Amino acid sequence: MDTETGVVEVVRLVQVYEVGKAINPLLCKGQINGGTMMGIGFALTEDFSPDYPAIELAPEGLSDYMITTAADMPQVMISDIVEVPHPDGPCGAKGFSGMTAAAPPPAIISAIHDAVGVWITDYPATPERILRALAAKEGGWG
User: Is there a smaller number of Cβ atoms within 10 Å at the N or the C end of the chain?
Assistant: First the structure.
């Protein structure tokens, strides 16, 4: 976290998901990696409607929409699965993909708080929002 620019870089992320029975463990880990990148985007860059409820200011297409790329991937990303076969799932499997994108945002927001002592209450945690929160903490503009 750069307190001068407000830029956050996720350098390490550790995740473990209970997936029922992993029919294809490699695909499960791939899902975790993909969901992680979506979650990082939700936490730090993606803002579908930055001036909600004024929808006319929403991005018009993907060329206007900030998404995460391979360059944003954490330097260290540890992902694992725990298998507890589910009695009602096919072959003991169960769905888990949605949570892989939902877990990183609150973890990143908490890490920002741990690093600099401010809570960011709106997604994404853009540099501007972080700098405003830091300034408010110091009694400046915010």
Answer: C
Q: Which amino acid is at 63?
A: S
- Whole-structure pTM value: 0.84
The two structure tokens encoding residue 121: 């209450």
The class (CATH top level) of 12-137 is alpha beta
Do the beta carbons of residue 121 and residue 55 sit within 8 Å?
no
Decide: helix, strand or coil at residue 40.
helix
pLDDT per residue as tens digits for the range 11-33? 999 999 999 999 999 999 999 99
CA geometry: angle at 115 spanning 72 and 38, to 5°? 30
Contacts of 124 (CB under 8 A, 6+ apart): 41, 42, 43, 44, 45, 46, 47
Question: Cα angle at 78 between 62 and 30, to 5 degrees?
Answer: 50
**Where do the H-state alpha helices sit in 45-103?**
97-102
